[in-house]
Specification:
Residues 323-352 are annotated as: Disordered. The chain contains twelve helices and 14 strands. It has helices at residues 44-51, 74-81, 99-109, 114-127, 143-154, 173-190, 201-207, 225-229, 235-240, 268-276, 310-318, 341-344; strands at residues 2-13, 16-28, 33-38, 59-64, 67-68, 84-87, 161-165, 193-198, 210-215, 218-224, 252-260, 281-290, 293-303, 323-324.
Length: 352
């Protein structure tokens, strides 16, 4: 549905050049929810705005629904943009218009007759759970209600693709969860393809089928969540299933194992203990529902050195279970107690 090839964008000014996109390639399948994670300045917003060419790249191609947008003249591009909805971090509602007026605005611009506009607005407000609020003004709404108006407005033209620009970062946790549940429901009911950018790992955990980490205008890792969880040394997998710093246990081997799919229901500890005649201690663990797949990460302690336990580690990996010996006192990527989080998640909430 969305195909991006070798996208490059450089901002120039005051004698300096900043590379926002450095050869980005991305494929989002039809009906998929794809999340792009990154800190402020990573290039996420530039990437998102390049999908509908609100930001025109210096080079590379953007294809949506089989149409190469980067090759279109401006008039045709305006028509194609109507197939792409967009929701914003700070809602971008017109304060002088009611809820119904905000949702109707894109329909007015495209010349939809009044009766059809009214029917479509009523349908959309019911879809996002705002029936009965048509006559309210933005100042009378909560943050979550404002974002629901923004979503309804983005859907007014019946788009097949929805772009989400940090849509939940201005909301409290409870409201965030309700908006994410709405997006997931719209994805299922309407078959919407959703590309979202975020600095919040919880967004990816809750609704994304695929994800990527963006850093300095490039993707450092990307893929389907199920594939990421099975990928040895994955930064994303370590962040999706965080365990924190590894303890220093002299005379023992600390092992982090990731299980998902069929392996999540496997009696792994019992198998390991029987097969290699070792006492296995569980030091910690976490279990999540990710992309409709139950997944978990366990931190185990085996007696003896890593060399002594080479057979057990090899067996785990050959079985298809990622097994890693973390650095003592380090997070999942060896970068210290915060692990990969410092590289992935911008705690400030600033947008790139």
């Amino acid at each position: 549905m969305i195909s991006i090839r070798d996208l490059r964008k450089v901002y120039r000014g005051r004698g300096r050049a900043v590379t926002a996109l450095d050869g980005v390639t991305l494929d989002v399948a039809e009906g998929e929810i794809y999340g792009v994670l990154g800190r402020s300045g990573a290039g996420k917003s530039t990437l998102l705005r390049s999908v509908n060419l609100l930001e025109r790249p210096d080079s590379g191609t953007v294809t949506v629904g089989g149409v190469e947008l980067t090759a279109l003249p401006e008039r045709r591009l305006r028509r194609e943009r109507q197939r792409i909805g967009m929701i914003h971090q700070h809602f971008a509602l017109l304060s002088s218009r009611t809820v119904a007026g905000n949702v109707a605005f894109p329909l007015e611009v495209t010349g939809v007759p009044r009766a059809r506009r009214a029917a479509r607005v009523a349908e959309l407000l019911e879809l996002v759970g705002l029936e009965g609020r048509a006559g309210a003004y933005p100042a009378q709404l909560s943050g979550g209600q404002k974002q629901r108006v923004g979503i309804a407005r983005a859907l007014a033209g019946d788009p097949k693709v929805l772009l989400s620009d940090e849509a939940t970062s201005a909301l409290d946790p409870e409201t965030t969860h309700s908006i994410l549940a709405l997006l997931a429901d719209l994805n299922r009911r309407l078959g919407l393809t959703i590309l979202l950018i975020t600095h919040e790992m919880d967004v990816v955990k809750r609704i994304c089928h695929s994800a990527a980490i963006m850093r300095d205008g490039r993707f450092t890792e990307s893929g389907r969540i199920a594939e990421i969880l099975a990928r040895p040394g994955s930064e994303l997998a370590a962040e999706l299933l965080r365990l924190g710093p590894a303890p220093d246990l002299p005379g023992q081997t600390v092992v982090d194992v990731t299980v998902s799919g069929d392996h999540a229901d496997r009696p792994l500890i019992a198998e390991l203990a029987r097969r290699f005649e070792v006492d296995v201690r569980i030091l910690g663990g976490t279990v999540e529902e990710l992309a409709a797949t139950r997944a978990g990460r366990l931190r185990l302690a085996l007696p003896g050195t890593a060399e002594h336990n080479r057979g057990a580690l090899t067996w785990l990996r050959e079985t298809g279970i990622p097994a890693e010996v973390p650095r003592t006192g380090a997070g999942p990527d060896g970068a210290g107690p915060d692990g990969a989080a410092a590289a992935v998640v911008d705690k400030t909430g600033d947008r790139s």
